[in-house]
Amino acid sequence: MRTFVSAVATVLGILLAAVAVPAIWVDRNVVQEDGFVRLAAPLGKDSEFQRKLAAAAVGTIDTGSVPGFLSGLVQPMLEKAAESLTGLPGYPAAWEETLRKSHRLSFADPAGSQDGASTSSLTLDVAPLVSLGSEEISRTTRLPLDPPEQTLINVGQPAQKEWTERLATYAPMGYILAIGSAVAFLLALVAARRRWTVLLAAGLGGLALAGLWGLGLQLGSERAQATDTGNAVANMFRDEFLAAAGADFQIWITTAAVTGGVLVAAAVVTLFASRKRARTSR
Q: Percentage of the chain surpassing pLDDT 90?
């Protein structure tokens, strides 16, 4: 009976861990605003992405309030602002605020969201960058420009909104599953007649999960990249974000693999130690 309980608890612990680890990663790095900003912030340092994002942001600046006789000066100034935007002192703060506003839109409560603000899984609100560009143009030309409160670039399809709602709902449950996994493994150790078998099974399970997560990461990234957003800037953001997310989760996968290897080694050491004690006691 003890062996059966230990085996069931070990399998349960592995299954719970299989879901808990990805769920916790998603909650910390996608659902939570600070984690998302930390993960996506380096994207603003990519020169090609910076150039295209700045051009897209500056291109949305409303010049309707500019007097007609000055309209010929506007386009050259917009092009110049797009080129210099990323070099302005306020760019890092504007990019971070862009990420925070975008995250709030993408994970907003549908009941409290504004029209069109929550139509896709990830919506970039580049209003802070537009505001920064408008201020720079107004400062250098004295032209009156009124930046909008929102400037949205959709990253994904409308149907993907359901995934953000599911992530926000279920990802935080990963912590409960992790506790359940730890309790299951503890029960397995207590009930086991040979504890090295639990360590070995847990270690092999960890190695198997690392491989499974790696395969899932690869397939998921390929599927996400195959979806065209219809916007060059959005596609670039998606690709860069997926690369950053994959690299970050790969650290978790490597940690799981190392932990699994350590548990397997501990099982072998425990096995030999128990056999040595058995021979000594004879």
A: 39
- Mean pLDDT, rounded, for 61-70: 52
Verify that 239 and 143 share a domain, yes or no.
Answer: no
Same-domain pairing of 179 and 159: no
Considering the domain architecture, whether residues 63 and 140 belong to the same structural domain is answered as: yes
The answer to whether the pTM exceeds 0.85 is no
| Rounded CA separation 227/180 (Å) | 36
Integer Cα distance of 262 and 93 in angstroms: 43
